[in-house]
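Amino Acid Chain and Its Fold in Token Form
===========================================
Purpose: to set a sequence beside its fold so the mapping can be learned.
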Amino acid sequence: MTRFTLNNRRWYAMELFSPEFGEQVRCCSPIMVYELTPMGGGGRRFELSFHHEVYPEGVQDKGYTIQTIERSDHYLLGRVVESDRLVLFLKLTSNWLYQHFDDRAVAAFLDKNNLTKDFA
């Protein structure tokens, strides 16, 4: 079985779950992974630095320490360390984009990043 893996300089879908989002429960965003660094020691933790596309400009570069909860061939589910946030990483597809964003936002994202509708 091949397990879902985050690779540097690649786009992914991220769904962040937290009480801070109120009734909405989650925040969805395409992310560009800058760097993933395993922390070692058998704790299933890694440092992740990434570009958070839906955050306002100037605060889009983020870094989290994540502890893996579950990893399958299609997703990675983790907990952001020292927070109540859960994070789900998936392959970024045009279907995922259109499921979570309107046509104009998807077109702007694809154009800004030189991607086509069938990039995935």
